[in-house]
Write a structure and sequence with these properties.
It is built from two helices and seven strands. The chain has 134 residues and is α+β, with helices and mostly antiparallel strands. It has one domain: Hotdog Thioesterase (Thiol Ester Dehydrase, Chain A). A seven-stranded antiparallel β-sheet has the order 1-2-3-5-6-7-4, with helices on one face.
Length: 134
């Protein structure tokens, strides 16, 4: 599957995220940042579905990136809590989009929420709280 138009490689800092991705950044629409992920063989578990850890990492990446990108200079968020509810399995070749929004941005804490989608079907819900220093 080709990466949809409007998405560009995220080029996140090398390290752990290199193993979970590659991730792609899409447009921000009405305050909602879209991050993409193509499910490839190294994401698949013994049930021929994306491992739950892949989905939870994707949720953490998308929510924390929304916080990171919320201000200039950019913020450096650290995850305090992350909640993911799995609604459907993602399969090899699926294109997923995480749609993240900031519900509240305080002085040192951000509250976020959103969902992970495969086309019109929601695969997961997600929410997180992040700490940061300005």
């Amino acid at each position: 599957m080709a990466i949809p138009s409007g998405f560009v490689p995220a080029d996140f800092t090398p390290g752990f995220l290199d193993h979970g991705g590659p991730y792609f950044l899409g447009p921000t629409v009405e305050g909602v940042r879209v991050v993409g992920l193509l499910i490839v063989p190294h994401h698949i578990n013994y049930q021929d579905a994306a491992h739950g850890g892949v989905i939870s990492t994707f949720a953490d990446v998308a929510l924390s990136h929304a916080v990171h990108d919320a201000e200039r200079p950019r913020l450096a968020p650290s995850t305090i809590t992350l909640t993911v509810n799995y609604l459907a399995a993602a399969r090899l070749g699926d294109w997923l989009e995480a749609r993240a929004r900031i519900d509240r941005l305080g002085g040192r804490t951000a509250y976020t929420s959103g969902g992970i989608w495969r086309g019109e079907e929601q695969v997961a819900t997600m929410s997180g709280v992040f700490a940061f220093r300005r």
